[in-house]
């Protein structure tokens, strides 16, 4: 689809044309997960949930239409439900209503086949109408950037490696830093331009080295080149060229590369790419580094990650993912609540900290299972405290950015408090600044709904990211949790002190309560009190402890 901006009428006729080729052609709003009905008079309405047809009551995990909307590029996905397989192609579009409003939507073209039957039927039918070679090119190449798409890249890479008569090859992954911000700050069109230019430069570099380039999804690219033609300086040149195109006063364009020198060509290509990506991840937030190479330490980490992923289900099922509670304190040390923090108890009795498993679970799409488990433990605990001296306690639970994609957070939370008959004001929801920045509009909408239902919403780790202030403008929450990094220099650096003092003051003016995280010393506590902060969390008061210990601490503090 070349054109991406449509009036309601234009999109209606587009859908009519497509419905000859596909079993289902429709337009959806991936933010609300609703089907958009396009009416004769040019108006629109939204009623039914879009996931109803392949999954009766749940939002799709890794929804291809959400992804299409975020990246501005076509996404393809297969869903299964009962005996049917749904091949979904999601194309981002901008829908213009008669009163001049324009908003992002996604056109979904769906082919439905029975389990066990081959290939997507509509694609076959469409191919019959096309020039054969053009169809082949389209099938193998990403429609936006015209480089190889994921499947064909893997296939072609395998062919090259198998046919190679000697000489080592290198797998390189490339990723644009903060690409989502490009879409947010400059719009989807600019985002598309960035992707196309990046692809053109990388493809040119790969081709001149005798290799190939592919776009594996979103802003992720891969290259396979002979080691003899590979050099770090060539990657640095490509990064510099791209940065020159797109950096502006408010945005520094930065592309990172992960490099894996292929020692064993028989390893699956996707594993090779995974290794290159592991290397990339080590420098993903560092604008001073362009490339990182996969090494033994990363191999160790990959094995560690595999252990976490393969052991997760069993640990969850056998109750070895525990809730620790860290007190939230008033200035005199009295405890008014707790933050729930996950701890993984190994079978040998040792404890694994969240730093070692949260990110792995996020990358593996498993974090929503952990979070739902933790939320339920927290609500159960609140229920248990009802009618006891702990009754007034609140528990704050953490949420990952991924939860917003894979769960209907509002439904899950309300179902939990209703099932256990717990006051929603007792369950506080911590959402990190970075999670909020990924999709400010969507988060803002969900947060309003949650607050309207009585949940207290807290912005976690405030000050850790780069766009904290603009976030406060867009998102209305009840509590601001100040990240410990803002505290670390207040003793030695007067400027840090001024900034922190102003943040506390500003939060007050915005009607938000402030909790300072990571208070470790009496001196820090004094400084924070002087700045007007009244609520605290940190080792000075207590580290996170098992529930029974937390209860003892609370009773002692009475
Ligand atoms: P967070 O939500 O910001 O939690 C506070 C972290 O700071 C905890 O680390 C806590 O132990 C640590 N901390 C508290 N006081 C101090 C202090 O005075 N000094 C220092 N140096 N550290 C302090 P923890 O338990 O290791 O958790 C790390 C992060 O992992 C959490 O940061 C949170 O983002 C994430 N996390 C933990 N449990 C869960 C969970 O169930 N779900 C999700 N999605 N994330 C979780
Ligand atoms: Mg937290
Ligand atoms: Mg925090």
Walk me through the structure.
With 558 residues, the protein is α/β, with parallel strands linked by helices. It folds into 3 domains: 5-139, Beta-Lactamase, CATH 3.30.450; 150-294, Reverse transcriptase/Diguanylate cyclase domain (Alpha-Beta Plaits), CATH 3.30.70; 312-555, Alpha-Beta Barrel (TIM Barrel), CATH 3.20.20. It is 42% helix and 25% strand. The strands form 3 sheets. An 8-stranded mixed β-barrel has the order 14-15-17-18-19-20-21-22, surrounded by 4 helices. Strands 1, 2, 3, 4, 5, 6 and 7 form a 7-stranded mixed beta sheet that branches. The chain has a 6-stranded mixed beta sheet with strand order 8-10-11-9-12-13, with helices on both faces. It starts with a strand and ends with a helix. The relative contact order is 0.06. The structure holds ligand C2E and magnesium ion (2 copies).
Summarize the structure.
With 558 residues, this protein is an alpha/beta fold. Helix content is 42%, strand content 25%.
List the keywords.
alpha/beta, Beta-Lactamase, TIM Barrel, 3 domains, 23 strands, globular, binds ligand C2E, binds magnesium ion
